[in-house]
């Protein structure tokens, strides 16, 4: 639960054990040395809560900063426009022929002033971000990527370093039979029936993996009955001992491991092509960590890391200038998930990890890490386009409404047309955001070679 070991860890007299972990077999006499707020789980919860409380508030939106000055500026421009045209008309600053027959100089000046007030549109600026975020998070949910708000979406598009947990994230998280080698001539089904007879009475995870694999040879039977083993004994730390009728000879060898999730290597390769650095941090031993990292293609490894060490590593990377995402599934990953700029939890993980994360990968597929980052980048590209349109519209529309073209072309913008233009600008921003509904994940993921777990 804490270290992420794929295999049970043998404990002897005097060893420390963690509350909430499972004793696979035998009897333990335990002395509680840390209780209440000193327990491992309480310390992890405290790390999560304190990190959340100390986290910086969401960055104030660009539109909010502009609106702070935009509205008073428009009011000043509107009044200035009216005043300039009114004084120009009063002191014969332009020919009388410019004034339409249906109005006087005051009314002409007032029309220019009102048009400036009406055409100026803070609405488009205000809609630029929330509409895109709303559509982006909705699309993410339909893709199996649950994004908890705009802040997570905003941070994800900047990610250039991802820290992966090992057990249950890069790997399946449970032992699986991956290879079989028979040393004597016999039918594979018969061999597994005899091995299953030995292991069926054991509660060890490896034994359960063997029995589950043996059941594949009896798929037509709902509750298969195995040959009876004699003198069954469970030897703590070593396995089981029993007698089955194989003439007392070694007839086969099984290879059992916690294998990589399908497509894990390809996902790491695609992240490298996206210029995103991948790091593996695990509580497991260095031997297992190095083997998994080599297989998946990760160069930087940190093993035998406690939960607080994972969070410290994330903070070190942030201090080095990286925008860090953490991908994990366990209670021990929660402090790092909170410390990261973006925490991504595997959907099949623990409730604490899911609660601590900013993004939940509901399908538990590693490829969805790429989908989350790509969707975030596409969403913020759309937001920038919205801002460009909203600002461009105002920069062009306000001078035209103020009558800049009137002395040269005689063109003036009546308030009703200015109002229609203002509404059209808001609608165009919304429509631009709605185009995100047609988002498709990167084509490289469609051609991703999702390999099953190889068994032989």
Brief descriptors of the model:
17 helices, Calcium-transporting ATPase, cytoplasmic domain N, ATP hydrolysis activity, disordered C terminus, elongated, 49% helix, seven-stranded mixed β-sheet, alpha/beta, ATP binding, 3 domains, two-stranded antiparallel ribbon, 456 residues, Rossmann fold, 11 strands
Spell out the blueprint of helices and strands.
Elements: H1 40-54, H2 62-90, H3 105-119, H4 122-142, E1 145-147, H5 150-156, E2 161-164, H6 166-170, E3 176-182, H7 188-199, H8 205-215, E4 230-235, E5 239-243, E6 252-257, H9 264-273, E7 277-281, H10 286-296, E8 300-302, H11 307-319, E9 324-328, H12 334-339, E10 342-346, H13 351-356, E11 359-361, H14 367-401, H15 406-409, H16 415-434, H17 443-446
Parallel strand pairs: 2-7, 2-9, 7-8, 9-10, 10-11
Antiparallel strand pairs: 1-11, 3-6, 4-5
What does this entry show, briefly?
This is Heavy metal atpase 5. The chain is of the alpha/beta class and 456 residues long.
Query: Could you describe the largest sheet, including whether it forms a barrel?
Result: 7 strands, mixed
Count of spatially separate domains: 3
Termini separation: 30 Å
Query: How many distinct helices?
Result: 17
**CATH-level-2 architecture of the largest domain:** 3-Layer(aba) Sandwich
How much of the residues is beta strand, in percent?
Answer: 5-15%
Order of strands across the main sheet? 1-11-10-9-2-7-8
Characterization of this structure:
By secondary structure, the protein is an alpha/beta fold. The chain has 3 domains: 62-129 and 379-444; 145-172 and 261-374, Rossmann fold; 176-257, Calcium-transporting ATPase, cytoplasmic domain N (3-Layer(aba) Sandwich). It has 17 helices and 11 strands. Strands 1-11-10-9-2-7-8 form a 7-stranded mixed β-sheet, with helices on both faces. A two-stranded antiparallel ribbon has the order 3-6. It has a two-stranded antiparallel sheet with strand order 4-5. β4 (230-235) and β5 (239-243) form a beta hairpin. It is elongated, with a radius of gyration of 33 Å. Mean pLDDT is 79; it is low at 47-60, 237-242 and 450-456. Belongs to the cation transport ATPase (P-type) (TC 3.A.3) family. Type IB subfamily.
